[in-house]
Amino acid sequence: MNAPMHGRTGNRTGANGEKPGYLRPKDAATILILDKTLSGIRVLMGRRPAKDAFMPAAYVFPGGRVDPTDGRAFAASELDPIVRDRLMDRMRPKPSAARARGLALCALRETAEETGYLIGKSETDLARVVCEDWAPFRDARVAPDLGALRLLARAITPPGRVRRFDSRFFVVWADAIALAPDGVAGTGELENIAWPTLDEADDLELPRITRSVIHDLKNRLVKDPALSPGGPAVFYRPVGETFVHETL
Fold first, then answer.
1. pLDDT digits over 71-112, tens only?
2. Where are the beta strands (DSSP E) in 68-217?
3. Pairing mode of beta strands 191-194, 177-179
4. Which residue among 53, 137, 141, 195 is the one 20 to 30 A from 121 at the CA level?
5. How far apart are CA 51 and CA 98, in angstroms?
6. What are the residues facing 89 on neighbouring strands?
7. Rounded to the nearest 5°, which phi and psi values hold at 62?
8. Which residues, 6 or more positions from 46, have their beta carbon under 8 angstroms from its beta carbon?
């Protein structure tokens, strides 16, 4: 499932033209995988198919909605306690370490499904992994690595939209990649998988929140080039038709 981020047009009506009632935001997670190169820092992105009704032809980061089983998946390492606590900050309706873990695992599962890249560590015994959603990790003998993840941002879709998500944006360095795809990989939900530099990414067709998060990343790298666990994370909290920017 592709990363559910706020669209460029902010759809407020459904297919039948009716305005939606109140929708509780669904937990979602996406990830920015960063690669240091001589030409600058590059980030993994993909383009949504032009035929899609939701954000057609837009470039996005891999990610999607949290599945109920995500929080129970096996991992080679757990979240840094600082990152875990920041994920739980202002979590509604009730903060939960298991839910924070599920968000992180969701980002890694969706990345594997959509791009074929596995963030993790080699693991010889994954026989206990029976959920088919995690088959790419099981088959490659790779266990997800949560300890490498950092929280970059959080954004909640404003009320009145036909889809609402409480999206967390993680960031990780490319040296955490345990397996890269050989050729075309993924489910087809993303096309033209590419590694643009941050400046090149800013010139692509992007959803508004994606562009904002790229700017947040640039600012974070200036203040915290190592992307430490305690680095600041931006919280886009909707108030009416605008966002209030807070820090987690």
1. 988 899 999 999 999 999 999 889 999 999 999 999 999 999
2. 118-122, 142-144, 150-156, 165-173, 177-179, 191-194
3. unpaired
4. 195
5. 36
6. none
7. -65, 145
8. 59, 60, 62, 114, 115, 186, 189, 190, 191, 192, 193, 194
Question: The dihedral of CA 69, 185, 181, 27: what is its sign?
Answer: negative
Environment class of 9 (CB within 10 Å of its CB; exposed 0-12, middle 13-18, buried 19+):
exposed
Encoded tokens for 190 = 């993303």
Element (H, E) at 42: strand 40-43
State both tokens at 237.
């909290």
**CATH for the 26-247 domain, from 3.40.50.620, 3.90.79.10, 3.40.50.300, 3.90.226.10:** 3.90.79.10
- pLDDT band at 248, cuts 50/70/90? confident
Q: Place 162 in a pLDDT band, splitting at 50, 70 and 90.
A: confident
Q: Determine if the peptide bond prior to 20 is cis (ω within 30°).
A: no
Q: For residue 101, what are its two tokens?
A: 């873990």
What's the pLDDT at 165?
92
